[in-house]
Write a structure and sequence with these properties.
The chain is built from 4 helices and 5 strands; from the N terminus they run E-E-E-H-E-H-H-E-H. The chain has helices at about 50-65, 80-85, 100-110, 125-135, and strands at about 10-15, 25-30, 35-45, 70-75, 115-120. The chain has a 5-stranded mixed sheet with strand order 3-2-1-4-5. It has a single domain, classed as Nucleotidyltransferase, domain 5 (2-Layer Sandwich), CATH 3.30.420.10. The longest helix is centred in the middle third of the chain and has 18 residues, at about 50-65.
Amino acid sequence: MDCHLDGFVKFNVDVVSHGNLDSAGIGGVCRDHNSVFLCCFAKGIGWNYALVAKTLAIRRALVIAGSMGIKKLIIESDNMLVVNLLKDAKKAPPWRIASIIEDCRIYSQAFDCILYHHSLREANSVANCLASLGTNAQ
């Protein structure tokens, strides 16, 4: 896949949990190649494992971007395992996220070009704030 960065839309996603037995939220912010805000989401997902939550956040971003008709997409997450699983379809995911990863791989086919990038947590501060709002939207 030959992907030039011109015209890409970027979705930063993150997760917040208020403790091991408390609610979790996912959030994401979408911007165009000029960093202009396009959309965002914040959603409560109840209690969940961090790995599952991170994967659910990416799946939600893919669904939203697909519904917007976006064709060139960058997904940024601070979870390197999930990012690497989505970069390499040959890698088998842990059983707990296998079906969500498969969903993501299927949704990815709607895009002309899709890139998955790992980012440091500090780079996802807006997505982190949205995920925090999601914990209250249970």
